[in-house]
Amino acid sequence: MTVHISENVYKFIEEISERAQADNPKWGKIFKECFLDTLEKTARVNEDGTTFVLTGDIPAMWLRDSTAQFRPYLMLADFDESIRELISGLVELQFQYIIHDPYANAFNQTANGNGHQSDHTELTPLIWERKYEIDSLAYPLQLAYLLYKNTGKTEHFNATFMEALEAIVGVWEQEQDHSQSPYTFVRDTDRLEDTLDNDGRGSDTAYTGMTWCGFRPSDDRCQYHYLVPSNMFAVVVLDYMLDLKDTIDVPEDLARRMEKLRDEIDQGIQEHGVVQNKAGKDIYAYEADGLGNYSIMDDPNVPSLLAAPYLGYCELDDELYINTRSTILSEENPYYYQGEYASGLGSSHTWDQYIWPIALSMEGLTTEDKAYKRDILNTLVNTDGGTNRMHESFDVNDPSKYTREWFSWANMMFCELLLDYYDIRVKK
Q1: For the chain, what is the domain count?
Q2: What residues make up the domain containing 157?
Q3: How far is the C-alpha of 151 from the C-alpha of 84, rounded, in Å?
Q4: Is pLDDT of 2 > 90?
Q5: How far is CA 197 from CA 2, 151, 190, 206, 260, in A?
Q6: Is 185 a member of any domain?
Q7: Secondary structure of residue 30 in the 3-state scheme
Q8: Which of 152, 277, 283, 312 is the most buried (most CB within 10 A)?
Q9: Bridge partners, residue 120, by sequence
Q10: What's the pLDDT score for residue 1?
Q11: Is 428 a domain residue?
Q12: Full DSSP string of 304-356
């Protein structure tokens, strides 16, 4: 069933579009089209009232993407019941999926057997893809918590939520020692980023306190399996859940486990995820393995090192973050590209010299400099390839060359940055 869009939502869109139009006509046009597009074309209301959200041009719902796609709507949820119900329905479906399989990252709307059913892992017809990513579990917890913070509502903290929370904590505890994990993943492919080596178990790791991750939020495999920004995100959402102890009935044993897990992961980040850049300054590594190996880079998807303060792990003026940010936005990051039309973060997931609008938006969302935000917004609308949409990535020397015609997550990140520019933000 398609989504009903209320007059409140249309009014909000018109007000922001008119305001943006005065600053840059393309800002207003792209905001209006992108903000509506996610509601009109990606969201579906199931018969049970849950909300299924397509990622865009792939007919499946990612736990990560769907949260990011709907996050800007939290700004309307306190005064618009239809939006609040849509988000609540999404939260419910996300946790139903997690209960079904906490190791899966993307799901079908029904158990139709679509997706990567030939992968060598434990699949069901409801699963589109089973690449295990920490953020696939962290994002739904974030959305549930932010729905509460922005509306005061607690109805979504129901039996489904509690069962999923128990499953999430169990997986993160299990994956602190991946050698004892039941999870393996092998895909028959020539693209090595899409499969795990070592018979599907990934490269070797040692215990650090952090929790293991199979794949990055790009859905490419980790090189070293303690993915630092995803572990940062886990620390943040575990804090969120502990903050709920006095609001909802969290069992004392589960609360103790979450506190212990949060502290162990955070300690692991500080002891194994802090390294030195070429200038000898302490920075966060992107990945580490506990065996002394690590990578200095960042990925344009979120969670990323760039996004650490946006996620709530640190403040904008944190010295480690400042050092890290300057490093990843430089040639020391092998995926930082500069060209005629733009500069920013690319990825091994896409072609050389292609950067991601998601990362550009995140640059704007992690600064207090209005001029910087304005420049990023102008860059984004000037590199849309004439489509009035954001894309997965584009060529820094020719924005008419881009990947993914329809990528809702990128569209909504642009919308969130524009709202942020006008000091309209999600309550945390």
Answers
A1: 1
A2: 7-421
A3: 8
A4: no
A5: 42, 45, 12, 17, 31
A6: yes
A7: helix
A8: 283
A9: 186
A10: 81
A11: no
A12: -STTHHHHTSS-TT-HHHHHHHHHHTSTTSTTEEE-SS-EEE--TTS-TTEE-
